[in-house]
Write a structure and sequence with these properties.
The structure is a single chain. The strands form two sheets. A seven-stranded mixed sheet has the order 5-4-3-6-7-9-8, with helices on one face. It has a two-stranded antiparallel sheet with strand order 1-2. It starts with 7 loop residues before the first helix and ends with a strand. Strand 3 (61-65), helix 3 and strand 4 (83-88) form a beta-alpha-beta unit. The radius of gyration is 15 Å and the shape is globular. The chain has one domain (8-185): Rossmann fold. It has helices spanning 8-11, 41-53, 71-78, 91-103, 117-120, 141-147; strands spanning 15-17, 27-29, 61-65, 83-88, 110-114, 129-132, 152-157, 167-175, 178-185. By secondary structure, the chain is an alpha/beta fold.
């Protein structure tokens, strides 16, 4: 499967692995089809090493928007985040997400919200970091970031994202066809 960083035996069964931390090496189910595009191991490793270095993960309250299989939020929990809220609406993705949370024994640290992200975001409170990985064709960044009231955002996209009003661009890196942008909300 192009765009997925899994070994050949896992590709046929829809599995990726947690990169590091408490659950490093553990398998995560990925829903079949093209609706969910899991973040590759290389990208997750780079993103979370950067977040760890900045002290943004340990003990943090995280939200994983457009969660899919939950790989980003689970990676955060594996590396010491206190809690994670996973927001997803796709049925196949929700099934894989719930199975992954249960298999890792994370039900006490994870909350799954079945909702459309833009409709739910105004209710978001008490979160330190938002991990956002919508479909690559998503074009509502300014609107979504305008609704978010969190200190830090990691946004994954098929194109470079400019910092809208109210946000400071901390870092923007390209990994193949994936752009990862880190933003900090201005006071």
């Amino acid at each position: 499967m192009p765009g997925r960083d899994v070994d050949a035996e896992d590709q046929s069964i829809g599995v990726i692995r947690v990169v590091s931390g408490e659950f490093g090496g553990r398998k995560l189910l990925v829903p079949a089809g093209v609706a969910t595009r899991p973040t590759t191991d290389k990208v997750r490793q780079a993103v979370f090493n950067s977040l760890d270095s900045a002290g943004l993960i340990d003990g943090a309250a995280i939200v994983d928007l457009y969660a899919g299989s939950g790989a980003l939020g689970i990676e955060a929990l594996s590396r010491g985040a206190a809690t994670c809220v996973f927001v997803e609406r796709d049925r196949a993705a929700l099934q894989a997400l719930r199975a992954n949370i249960a298999a890792l024994g994370l039900t006490d640290r994870a909350t799954v919200v079945t909702s459309d992200v833009p409709a739910w975001v105004p209710a978001l409170r008490g979160v330190d970091l938002a991990l956002i990985d919508p479909p690559y064709e998503f074009d509502g960044w300014d609107q979504l970031l305008g609704l978010l009231r969190v200190p830090y955002v990691v946004a994954e996209s098929g194109r470079q994202i400019e910092a809208p009003i109210g946000w400071d661009l901390l870092r923007s890196r390209r990994y193949g066809r994936t752009w990862v942008t880190q933003l900090e909300r201005l006071a």
